[in-house]
Amino acid sequence: MPAIPSLGGLRGRGNKGAVPVRPVPVPLSAYVVDCAVYVSGERLSGRWTHIEAIKEVRKRHEGFVWIGLHEPDSEQIQGIAETFGLHELAVEDALEAHQRPKLERYDDTLFLVVKTVRYVEHESPTTANEIVETGELMVFLGRDFVITVRHGNHSGLARLRRELDDDPERLQLGPAAVVHAIADHVVDHYLDVTGRIENDIDVMEAQVFAPRSQISAEQIYLMKREVLELRRAVMPLATPVQRLAEGYTRLVPDEVRSYFRDVADHLTTVSERVAAFDELLSTLVDATVAKISLQQNTDMRKITSWAAIITVPTMIAGIYGMNFDYLPELHWKFGYPLVITVILGICLLLYRIFRKNGWL
Question: Which long-range contacts (CB under 8 A, 24 or more apart) does 343-347 make?
Fold first, then answer.
């Protein structure tokens, strides 16, 4: 069956070839999760575009705008960037996932990148292929606005926004309070994920030191890889949070800085847990390798013992298999039973010696 061209690709096929068709533009509303105006900590009713929202705030000379975006493309975010005066380098970073956690200042705007994590449910850590899934949140903080750009399907902020809507006293501190709430929300998820990973590592540890367990070093390496991914999300975030807690910019008032210190303390706890996980998994890898080596040595001793026992009848049979006329007891009628008795006696003696020494 011939291929059918897509609607956004070619239009018409004549002698002069295909005519390219421009893709249908996607409205900005498709990427905007929410756009709200907050005045005196209260959310104003109604639906707002980003232009109307910032006009309303600047007309009142109070309040701020909170816009949430989900994986926008360059064309759609350009309008917001122009309206709020976002730096082009920060916008470029916000469009691309797989950014390292960081904090950068562009004129009167802060750009913060944090990684979100989600614990992937599984039956057992010894059979799981994935334990941690990561996403990203980019936050633009200005004097009267905060813009969040998220990548990934598990990093939504709808629940956090509802909690803040119910806490106007907190929102009266300005858009920096939203940034703190986001950082606190992300770090709390770190604590939850590390707690569940700790349970998985405890299960693995019990399996490693259990007699005749079948856990392999590869599964521990997989867990170590997941912990490494978590470490890449947690460790680089310590410096940005510390800078926000120490008064890196006037966009974060003194009242909010104290809250960031609490986030920094929680993040330190998470970092210590992750470092401990890494060390413990390294120990488990060493223990597993040692256990495998011990098992291999035991198997080799058994194989060697049986090979030594089998060598006795093989050697005697080889001697009597040679075509010589004058071999001891060759023509004696009790020669065959005697040889068999000698073979069995030597084999039993060797078996008893190896058994006594723990080789069999």
Answer: 343/312, 343/313, 343/316, 346/312, 347/309, 347/312, 347/313
- With CA atoms as reference, report the closest residue to 50 among 142, 134, 167: 142
Residues 185-216 have pLDDT tens digits of 999 999 999 999 999 999 888 888 877 777 77
* Cα 273 off chain centre by: 15
Are 286 and 330 found together in one domain? no
Instruction: Domain of residue 346: give its range.
Output: 297-356
Q: Please indicate, yes or no, if residue 284 is contained in any of the structural domains.
A: yes
Instruction: Judge whether 6 and 23 are in contact, CB under 8 Å.
Output: no
Q: What is the pTM of this model?
A: 0.74
Q: Which of 223, 190, 227 is nearest to 204 (CA)?
A: 223
CATH number at 81 reads: 3.30.460.20
Torsion of CA 161, 166, 168, 169, to 10 degrees: -110
